[in-house]
Amino acid sequence: MNANGTVSRLTDHLGYWMRMVSNHVSFAFARRLEGKDVTVAEWVMMRELHSAEPLAPHRLAGRMGMTRGAISKLADRLVAKALVTRSDDPADGRAHMLALSDAGRLLVPDLARLADENDADAFGCLTADERTQLDRILRKIAAAHGLKGSPTS
After folding, report:
1. What confidence score (pLDDT) does residue 102 get?
2. Class of the 27-144 domain?
3. How far apart are CA 76 and CA 86, in angstroms?
4. Does pTM surpass 0.90?
């Protein structure tokens, strides 16, 4: 309820509009990725591996804000698609490391291009200044709430 005792409308909440836009952007990107046989979560993992491979699953889980079990399932799917490799950790024979395969490394720039196109389509209605302001505001909100994991859905 608001100050005058009436029940607020859904559309009175910034969260409503953020979720609407987020859903639109996410679903549009997921559709773009369907043609590449990769999910949004798989793309996020591949992009993380592209920047800092090879990685132990627990480190990847921390970077992505996911559980080790979820990382294991993602890795299994990407290994089955021959986009990620799993190898023994030379420092700890009980552990393993994840890395992009050659095919995965070749695919990441194409997927990044799709992500860039998706952003351009979704936010092309904004001026450069508006886009900069939105980016600053969203980063400020994320920082204020300690949000660090990669959104994967």
Report:
1. 95
2. mainly alpha
3. 9
4. no
Tell me the Cα Rg of the chain.
Answer: 19
Listed in sequence order, the DSSP H helices in 6-101 are 14-34, 40-52, 57-64, 68-80
- The CA distance from 35 to 80, in Å, is 17
How far lies 27's CA from each of 23, 24, 87, in Å? 6, 5, 33
Least confident of 26-30, 40-44, 49-53: 49-53
CB-based contact 33:117 (threshold 8 Å): no
For residue 82, give the 3-state DSSP assignment. coil
* Contact assessment for residue 95 and residue 75, using Cβ atoms and an 8 Å cutoff: no
Each residue's pLDDT tens digit, 103-120: 999 999 999 999 999 999
Tokens coding 12: 């009175």
Q: Are 46 and 108 in contact (CB under 8 A)?
A: yes
How do residues 5-15 score in pLDDT, each as one tens digit? 889 999 999 99
Contacts (Cβ under 8 Å, ≥6 apart) of 126: 134
Backbone angles phi, psi at 37, to 5 degrees: 60, 40
